[in-house]
Specification:
Elements lengths: L16 E2 L4 E4 L6 E4 L6 H11 L7 H10 L5 E5 L2 E11 L2 E12 L8 H13 L6 E6 L4 H14 L3 E7 L11 E6 L5
Parallel strand pairs: 6-7
Antiparallel strand pairs: 1-2, 2-3, 3-4, 4-5, 5-6, 7-9, 8-9
C-alpha cells in the first residue's frame, strides 16, 4: 500500500494492450515491438545480449534463466519481430519496498538508437506502480554517459527528480572495475 504522502512515478506512456497471459505494450519504437515480462525461454537470449554488449558485467547463463523465473514480474523484455531484442532486469529492494532496483538493461546492437531502453524502463515503472513503488534506483559508473542520459531522460519524461550520489568505490570491486554511483529516479524519501 502506498503511503498518503507518496505517489507512483508518473508516466505519459500510452495505454497498455493486454494479451491472454502477460500484459504487454506495443512500444513507440516500431510497429512490431512488444514489451512483456520475460519467460524462462528468454533467459538465453538475455544472456547473449548482455554478452554481446561488451560493457555489462556478464552473469552466468543460469543467472539469466533463474532471473526469468523468480523476477519476471519486475523485469521486462522487448520482443522485436518475434525475437527478444532488449531486456531490463530489476527487483524490489527487500528493505525498501517502495524502490525498484535496476540490475541490468541492454539492447541488441542492431536495435540501438530507437529509444527501446527508455520504453522498457517506462513500461516497467508503469507495471510496478500499483505495488506502491515510487522510486527507481540503479548504479552507473562515471564513464557511462549513455546510461546517465537514459536515466536522466526517464526522469524528465516522467516529470520527477533524479539524484546521484557515491555508492561503491573502485576498491569495493576487483581490480579494473570503475566506482559505481547511485542514481535515484523519483521523489526523495521524506
Amino acid at each position: 500500500m502506498r503511503p498518503d504522502n507518496e505517489s507512483a512515478i508518473p508516466s505519459t506512456v500510452p495505454d497498455t494492450v493486454h494479451t491472454a497471459e502477460t500484459p504487454s505494450r506495443r512500444a513507440e519504437t516500431g510497429p512490431l515491438t512488444e514489451l512483456r515480462s520475460p519467460g524462462i525461454s528468454d533467459g538465453v537470449r538475455m544472456w547473449e545480449i548482455a554478452r554481446d554488449s561488451r560493457v555489462l558485467d556478464l552473469n552466468s547463463s543460469y543467472a539469466y534463466v533463474l532471473w526469468c523465473r523468480d523476477f519476471a514480474a519486475t523485469s521486462i523484455v522487448a520482443e522485436v519481430d518475434g525475437r527478444v531484442g532488449g531486456f531490463a532486469t530489476a527487483f524490489v529492494r527487500p528493505r525498501v519496498p517502495d524502490t525498484l532496483f535496476l540490475w541490468q538493461i541492454a539492447v541488441d546492437e542492431q536495435l540501438r538508437g530507437q529509444r527501446l531502453a527508455a520504453a522498457m524502463l517506462n513500461e516497467l515503472l508503469d507495471r510496478v506502480a500499483d505495488r506502491g513503488i515510487t522510486r527507481l534506483e540503479t548504479t552507473i559508473s562515471p564513464d557511462n554517459p549513455a546510461s546517465q542520459a537514459l536515466f536522466t531522460g526517464v526522469a524528465r519524461h516522467r516529470g520527477v527528480p533524479i539524484t546521484r550520489q557515491p555508492l561503491f568505490t573502485a576498491e569495493d570491486f576487483p581490480p579494473g572495475h570503475e566506482p559505481e554511483e547511485l542514481y535515484t529516479v523519483g521523489a526523495p524519501r521524506a
